[in-house]
Amino acid sequence: MIKAYILKNIIAITSLLFFLVIGTLVYANSFDNEFIWDDDDSIVNNTYIKNWNHLPDFFTQNLIAGSGQITDYWRPVLLISFALDYNFWQLNPTGFHITNTLLHIFNAWLTFLFLRLIARTNPSKNDTKINRLSLNEDIIPFIIALFFLVHPLNTEAITYIAGRADPLSSIFSLLSLLCYTKYRLKHNPKLLNLSAQSWLYPSSLLLFILALMTKEQVILLPFIIAITEFICISQSLNKKRFFRAVKMLLPFFILSIIYLSIRLTILDFNDMFSGFSQGESYDNIILHRLLTFTYVIILYLKLLFIPTGLHMAREITPITSIFSLPVIFFITLIITTTKLCIKTWHTNRLITFGILWFSIILLPRTNIFQINRPMYEHWLYLPMIGFWLALLYSMPIFTEKFTKINRLPKTLQIKILISASIFVTIIFSSLTIIRNSDWKDAIVFYETNLSYTPNSFIQHNNLGMAYANNNEFEAAIREYKLSLAIADEYPQVHSNLANSLLALGYASEAIIEYKKAIEMNPTFSIPYYKLLSIYISQKDIYAIEKILTYMNDFFPTDINYLYSKGIIYFDMGNYTKAIDAWQILHNRTNSPEIHNLIKQAQFQHSISEKK
């Protein structure tokens, strides 16, 4: 039985083993890389993933609530994956990197399986076989999956641990697509010879729900399923087939609507459409955001072909004129691809499918509703599949027009394609291995990024933090001051600067910076505790009282504030105020530890009264 299964699925099994070897070789040099950037909030400082008692919080709180931070990302399944990694590896980043790599390898394999499946729904009269492998149904899907596996753009989703939302959500999305497609094709034995497997459709819905709980962008998956239905499955529609297809698709769209409704109400943590400020023109004028996207598309296409100069948090200058070159190029591109789709509709619908796949998944990145920066490299993680799909299946059109390759024997053409693909794979793999080293540690990472974006105040601040963590406080101070010189917008930078000044013994200068941070954001709690620590060391009772009083206006019921307030007053010998603070805390938490502290304070108070 096992032997028969292996023989039947030899191509699928062999491809999985091949992807496992290649993927491991390409990403192996990332396994020793450290935690970087959002890894701190998502993993290192996230108390939720370190204790399974917080599992309910995964589903009710934002992604980084366990780090005391706020974001509008709600990704409970992603948190579960981090918690599982932490359970096995603690804070050893190697384990997290291995998980990301395995997820990516599995996605490449699922891509191959899905593309083989839909290619069989689109048989070509000009298809060629070599060693029993079909060009359209086996070789091209394999090449697409291989390019996806080794492309350097994907390092932002794989080498960067916090980028896991992309590969993890993609697994659920691709599995959902596979289940749906197999279920819908099961009545066509000429295509697949599948027996009726009723579990496939509900599994597809369940996998879609899991994908939604991993990354927000998956809300568009029903549209991808829809183009799969109408381009690859229900190719010749009559009224009965159309309504059956709509009936199959409707639950997916209903789930998307329910998800969006919940995210905009109950689970809207930080204004879902607030976005990142990119300047008044970009922020306030929708047309400028759409025009800017035309330039972003040009950059994406360039990076797909020539993936060099890769870096995070790109600075994009807004496009404000409809007569700019990027806009003209984009319009030309739209006209050209539309003509291509019309020309190839009856001969190879997979070209149209790939173009629509690429376009639909990138649709939110137009920032019609400003929800993020203009561009990130990892946003091409899934769209990339559609790009290579459209390009490789349309290659015969271009080779026929511009070369004489089509005059060669079919088997020789396939060998040329395979040789060229091997060459491209080697180039992409080499660039990925090199790019992995840019993520080695925080200092290397931010220095690399700043070589491309020297005016990024956020990255100067982050580089300063990296230096501070390495006890290079003078270098840290230099970076914080550069950050403030570029844009004095974040109180955290003043607080970070104060930390490094304090580490070098400049308490007076540190106090000034902590106070600036508080002035910018009175609800930013860290500077208060730092000031308290300084004043306690200086035994400045008046300053301590002043800070505690000020904190009471903003954090009257905060657990950390009440606990610290009690400790400070206890150490100062003011047992009455210590008891008052801890009593409020005990009423909130009913903690045995706090109860014992109250008893100690009451005992010390009684002794002091007798004196």
Keywords summarizing the entry:
mainly alpha, about 70% helix, Serine Threonine Protein Phosphatase 5, Tetratricopeptide repeat, two-stranded antiparallel sheet
Helices and strands in order:
Elements: H1 2-8, H2 10-27, H3 39-44, H4 55-60, H5 76-89, H6 93-119, E1 129-130, E2 133-134, H7 135-150, H8 155-158, H9 165-185, H10 200-212, H11 221-233, H12 239-263, H13 280-284, H14 286-305, H15 325-344, H16 350-362, H17 383-393, H18 395-402, H19 410-438, H20 442-452, H21 457-469, H22 473-486, H23 491-503, H24 507-520, H25 526-538, H26 541-554, H27 559-572, H28 575-589, H29 592-610
Antiparallel strand pairs: 1-2
Helix pairs in contact: 2-6, 2-7, 5-6, 6-7, 6-9, 7-17, 7-19, 9-10, 9-11, 10-12, 11-12, 11-16, 14-15, 16-17, 20-21, 21-22, 21-23, 22-23, 23-24, 24-25, 25-26, 27-28, 28-29
Helix content: 55-70%
- Mean of residue pLDDT values: 89
Q: Give the overall shape.
A: elongated
Radius of gyration over alpha carbons?
A: 29 Å
Strand content: under 5%
Query: How would you sum up the major sheet?
Result: 2 strands, antiparallel
Instruction: Kindly report how far apart the N and C termini lie.
Output: 88 Å
As laid out across the biggest beta sheet, the strand order is 1-2
From the helix content, strand content and strand pairing, which structural class follows? mainly alpha
What's the helix count?
A: 29
Low-confidence stretches: 189-194
Any idea how many domains?
2
What is the number of E strands?
2
